């Protein structure tokens, strides 16, 4: 089936560079942010982790390829005062993906002791806490405070944040899966080989400090193991309550024939 390549998030920068280069195959779609609704029953898709919960009737999850980051990452909470001075607040999810939303829900109260009065998608002037992801989360703040939620999660759980998983059509063959995995692995390697150009392009569209970007990209991992598979479920179990994403009993990992 067709392959919905990764969203153009910064966690996928190397893969996107490898998939959209001159040698890239033509049947790859790279969009600003793939949602479950974008994924057809025969599509392979690298999507943000919570989206899997909306695809369980048609897809399983690849146990081998996924994107994770530990201890530090590009999902942040911005506050006008120190977080420990905030007890209750409206939370603005400012153009963030589903992984960032669930990470915020999983850390705000358990880690920071901040109770969410409401969760907003559009700014209405009432929110004092803003969640940002991608390059925006890596940029230095001019005023107020910025908290790395990937770090908060790591302190809370000792787990990495698995941001993306590979959704596989239930009827796909082992050969199909191997071909997609190879394409993703090759794309990541191609993007890494061109990392100076990738970093330059990202720096040109943001005010992120070069060292911060280098550190962020260096922390990304693209293979899943037992620990990261557990972590992928953990963020759904701890963060899906109150959202449109189902609280799964388990992730539907694909079993090889």
Q: What's the topology here?
A:
Elements: E1 3-4, H1 13-19, E2 28-29, E3 44-48, E4 59-69, E5 75-79, E6 88-93, H2 98-112, E7 115-120, E8 129-133, H3 135-138, E9 145-148, H4 149-157, E10 161-169, H5 174-193, H6 195-204, H7 210-219, E11 221-223, H8 226-239
Parallel strand pairs: 1-2, 1-3, 6-7, 6-8
Antiparallel strand pairs: 3-10, 4-10, 4-11, 5-8, 5-9
Helix pairs in contact: 1-5, 2-4, 2-8
Structural descriptors:
8 helices; six-stranded mixed sheet; alpha/beta; five-stranded mixed sheet; 257 residues
What do you see in this structure?
The protein is α/β, with parallel strands linked by helices. Helix content is 35%, strand content 23%. The chain has 8 helices and 11 strands. It has helices spanning 13-19, 98-112, 135-138, 149-157, 174-193, 195-204, 210-219, 226-239; strands spanning 3-4, 28-29, 44-48, 59-69, 75-79, 88-93, 115-120, 129-133, 145-148, 161-169, 221-223. The protein has a 6-stranded mixed sheet, with helices on both faces. A 5-stranded mixed sheet has the order 7-6-8-5-9. Helix 2 (98-112) crosses helix 8. It is globular and about 55 Å long.
Arrangement of strands in the largest sheet:
2-1-3-10-4-11
Largest sheet: 6 strands, mixed
Described by the principal axes of the CA atoms, the overall outline is globular
> How do the helices and strands follow one another from N- to C-terminus?
EHEEEEEHEEHEHEHHHEH
Strand content: 15-25%
* Rg over C-alpha atoms, rounded to the nearest angstrom: 18 Å
Q: Count the E strands.
A: 11
How many helix segments? 8
Structural class: alpha/beta
- Average predicted local confidence, pLDDT: 89
List low-pLDDT spans.
none
Span between termini: 19 Å
Please estimate the helix content: 25-40%
């Amino acid at each position: 089936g067709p392959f919905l390549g990764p969203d153009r998030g910064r966690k996928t920068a190397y893969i996107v560079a490898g998939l959209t280069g001159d040698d890239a195959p033509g049947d790859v779609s790279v969009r600003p942010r793939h949602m479950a609704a974008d994924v057809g029953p025969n599509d392979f898709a690298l999507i943000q982790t919570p989206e899997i919960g909306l695809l369980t009737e048609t897809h399983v999850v690849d146990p081998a390829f996924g994107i994770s980051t530990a201890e530090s990452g590009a999902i942040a909470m911005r506050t006008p005062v120190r977080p420990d001075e905030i007890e209750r607040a409206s939370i603005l999810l400012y153009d963030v993906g589903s992984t960032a939303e669930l990470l915020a829900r999983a850390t705000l109260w358990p880690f920071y002791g901040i109770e969410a009065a409401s969760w907003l998608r559009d700014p209405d002037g009432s929110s004092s806490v803003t969640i940002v992801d991608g390059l925006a989360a890596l940029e230095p703040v001019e005023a107020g405070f910025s908290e790395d939620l990937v770090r908060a999660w790591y302190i809370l759980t000792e787990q990495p944040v698995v941001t993306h998983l590979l959704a596989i059509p239930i009827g796909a063959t082992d050969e199909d899966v191997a071909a997609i995995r190879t394409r993703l692995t090759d794309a990541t390697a191609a993007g890494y080989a061109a990392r100076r150009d990738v970093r330059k392009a990202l720096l040109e569209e943001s005010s992120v400090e070069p060292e911060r970007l280098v550190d962020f990209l260096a922390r990304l991992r693209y293979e899943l193991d037992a620990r990261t598979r557990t972590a992928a479920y953990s963020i759904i179990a701890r963060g899906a309550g109150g959202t449109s994403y189902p609280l799964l009993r388990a992730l539907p990992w694909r079993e090889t024939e």
